[in-house]
Amino acid sequence: MKLLEINHCNKKFGDNEVLKDISLSVEEGQVVSIIGPSGSGKSTLLRCATLLETMDGGDLIYLGEYTAKADETGKSIYGTKAELQKARQHFGLVFQNFNLFPHYSVLKNITEPPILIGKRPKDEVYAEARELLKKMGLADKEDAYPYQLSGGQQQRVSIARALAMKPKILFFDEPTSALDPELTGEILHVIKELAAEHMTMVIVTHEMSFARDVSDHIIFMDGGVIVEEGEPKELINNPKQERTKAFLSRFQ
Ligand code: ADP
Ligand code: MG
Questions:
Q1: Radius of gyration, CA atoms only, the chain
Q2: What number is the ipTM of this complex?
């Protein structure tokens, strides 16, 4: 089953065409990684997929239901507020810079969204949040504040916070780029564990060997277009396009 489908997505900022006819789909249980140089449009694509930006053209479809649908001229027409709210329940987003509430404890950071937005019973949410913290190796940190944690720990809290909403798809935008190299591994490990549990994920990353190992499909973007995509080992070890080769050679 397709959890997400994006068809012919176009996005401009002023005259700057940032996304040009991007299409992708994500099957349930799939891990799709998006790689590409800085400025190629990866974050904008994630922001369009997660309704933080509006697409100018194309369709956005969650679980077979249109969140935005192209009209006869190709322009994206978005659904009602209620329809967008429903779509939002399907995904979680983990940012590069963690985006935790600094004045909330770890536990409150994780439990607020399911209680306030999800309207779920407090005791159930707290029990689940503690399970998630245990899974993230942070069982002893529930009362800590973000500033008391390392970057890797903060990022694990933000992954727990996203999971607490029980999303069908988890999006990551360069989850390790703000971390010191020695803390990167712990986050990649957590994401690999989620992949082993068949969590559906879309991951923008500069970690090439991680992308090769964890993904079912890799998309290489450059200049707002998908230049090449395919099976991870094939794409990373044996790229066909010159632009892909040039990009990957920087990581060797
Ligand atoms: P990436 O994540 O691949 O580095 P981005 O999606 O952040 O790329 O950016 C793609 C292009 O869109 C860049 O040229 C960037 O300057 C531009 N851009 C991104 N966000 C905005 C914005 N809010 N307003 C104007 N231009 C933007
Ligand atoms: Mg980016």
A1: 18
A2: 0.99
